[in-house]
């Protein structure tokens, strides 16, 4: 029985979106990863706000409006920091720790968890502080109050996902994979930084 292929325009919407994403990823890798990071970061912040509003409503507390400026800050962070930094980090990891290295699985995970994660979280706190137009005292206060807690949670939550990401996900999809997990991670960070 012959199989008839469908033209892309007749394919389901999710298939067409994936096809378009792959084309853009190949043609404009950094820009595509950056825009994706910005969108998913903003969605993570909005998710945090929605969950917080539901929690307040459940306890009868007054609900505040959606903070669009907060979502915009997360979008800016994803667009200008998460996308490009993650792209180059994963590319360099491939060069520094090729799959031909017999210990690359462990080395990649240790590099990500012990070097990249603490530095990237510190960068997140610093950039968010700037985007919120807060001073150095506020930055120090938030660092003392929640950095260590957030880093420990990062190690707990991200380690299994990053083990899979840095060792088994093709390099061109690592930022997207991490962004998918980060959608929920940014919801956590938005709540813990308050």
Automatic annotation (TrEMBL):
It holds the Pfam family Mpv17_PMP22. The keyword Transmembrane helix applies. The chain crosses the membrane at residues 71-90, 110-131, 171-189. Keywords: Membrane, Transmembrane, Transmembrane helix. Its main location: membrane. Signal peptide: none annotated. It is a multi-pass membrane protein. It comes from the Eukaryota. One of its GO terms (cellular component) is peroxisomal membrane. InterPro entries: Mpv17_PMP22. It is found in: Membrane. Belongs to the peroxisomal membrane protein PXMP2/4 family. This is Peroxisomal membrane protein 2.
